[in-house]
Amino acid sequence: MHTFKKNERLGNFRLRQLLFTRGKHFFHYPFRVVWLCFPREELPKVFPGKMIPSNARFTYPSKFLVSVPRRNFNKAVHRNRVKRLVREAFRKNKNSFYSFLDRKNACCLLGMIYAGKNMPDYAATMRSVREVLDILAERIDKEGLDHEGDARQIIGE
RNA sequence: GAGGCAGGUUGUCCUGUCGCGUCCUGCUUCGGGCAGGAUGAGGAAAGUCCGGGCAACACAGAGCAGCAUACUUCCUAACGGGAAGCCGGUCUGCGAAGCAGGCCGCGAGAAAGUGCCGCAGAAAAUAACCGCCUAAGCCCGGUGAUGCCGGGCCGGCAAGGGUGAAAACGUGAGGUAAGAGCUCACGGCUUAUCCGGGUGACCGGAUAAGGGGGUAAACCUUAUGCGUUGAAAGGCCAAAUAUACCGGGGACUGAGGGUUGCUCGCCCGAUCCCGGCGGGUAGGCCGUUAGAGGCAGCAUGUGAAUGCUGUCCAAGACAAAUGACAGGAAGCACAUGUCAGAUGUGCCACAGAACCCGGCUUACAGGCCUGCCUCUUGU
RNA sequence: UGUCCCGUGGUGUAAUUGGCAACACGUCUGACUCUGGAUCAGAAGAGUCCAGGUUCGACCCCUGGCGGGACAA
């Protein structure tokens, strides 16, 4: 299904902090991609000794985040336009990436920061998002999964 | 008919495929998911420039300080907003004064006080450089002279010159040694009183007094208003620990605190307060979307607006939904073509709610309406 | 969401009772040198973010806008 529900978005504060402090990143124009991929059964380690908040549960194998810096797009309406285009492209292209993660029994935090300075068009965004997902799957396959350990240490540092 | 300016108003629509937030209903393998239905950005949502609602602080009090406003009347919940006027400035038209219209105005007080006014100039505020005058007083000389002539001292004057943005009412006459609102006539200004008109600012007139340059978007004075802090206000729930340790202070004769710049007042106050070094939490709900709401009609009013009646409106996210793609229609521009229809290409703005309202300001493709100006054509 | 600050040559800064927009670096020209650098001499380069207003006169005071920055658990 080409859906993009609220649960596929990265909304939890602790998970976002985890992504940006521990995540790996690479650049593929026009995106700076930050990602963190770990086995599904290690999720409780992020929230030791307590319930997992509802917006941190992985109903889908991935949580996704788009960011557009104000530096390059001054108007709020332009930032919204870019974010909507990227989300649309992710929605259309995510299926093979999701099935790849399901085969690995992994869950993935993914952030894409739009670093271009010009307003993208639909076709180019579709193409570059597809390329990013391909590169990501390749790297996860090659480098394996991360192991979380005690997240309290991660956030404390 | 075309173009320009100003103001007001409006600011795209339809279909298909895929998709998103919220709410409701139902189903379910129920901290989740599925199906169906409803609903989902603006005139500025923006800037955050004002005013309110609302909330907390003792349902809030005094003084000082501070801030804001400033022609009048009215509208409004309120305002620094708006309406109608008054006055001043400026432009245009007709013109003899004057009248009409457009535009602009932070438009109280300079006769309460203080400060400032570069350069130039004698002087920038109890004026005297050049200049004008020696009538009165004193002295000297000439001469027969208590007079006259000449000179000096003590002085008098502010007309003329020149400087400047600005020079101590203007013109004319009288007056005088020379002069001066010193006096008079006309004109103009300020203050006070009175009369008439107007709710009022103010206007018209009369009488009396006066002679004071500008600057308050300099300090200031007067009048009026303002308690402070803003949804990160504030309330509730859940989770988590440490009343650890070190130093200092204090315990009713009061350390410290109470979201107010200072002082007071009032209130709270001992498992307390300050500093250091450490530890824990980072989640949810309410506040939170229906209100000084829109539209139409009638009535009142010059108008802003108000009253009555009817009718229509239900975004509510929270690393933040309201979208993407395709096709078509409408509108505009250009080209081809034409009696007209048409065809092709391109364009279709500014911009995205974040507690809610009323204003202001700023951005804006195109359409429509009104007024004014210019040009052209016809009558 | 709210609060505060700043805007001057190409760059960094001055300019206070409101009275000629100044300085350094850089740039350009010339001298010195075989050439360059350094050094010396000289010159150009702004009307103060924009638009109004107050005033005789505005970088300075007032109003509105534009742009940039900082802060608030």
SSE diagram, text form:
Blueprint: H1 13-22, E1 24-28, E2 31-39, E3 62-67, H2 76-93, H3 95-104, E4 106-114, H4 122-143, H5 151-156
Parallel strand pairs: 3-4
Antiparallel strand pairs: 1-2, 2-4
Helix pairs in contact: 2-4
This protein binds 2 RNA strands through residues 2-7, 9-14, 16-17, 50-55, 57, 59, 65-67, 75-78, 80-81, 84-85, 87-89, 91-92, 122, 155.
General description of the model:
With 157 residues, the protein is α+β, with helices and mostly antiparallel strands. The protein has one domain: Ribosomal Protein S5, domain 2 (2-Layer Sandwich), CATH 3.30.230. The protein is 42% helix and 18% strand. It contains 5 helices and 4 strands. Strand 1 (24-28) and strand 2 form a beta hairpin. Residues 149-157 have low confidence and may be disordered. The chain binds 2 RNA strands through residues 2-7, 9-14, 16-17, 50-55, 57, 59, 65-67, 75-78, 80-81, 84-85, 87-89, 91-92, 122, 155.
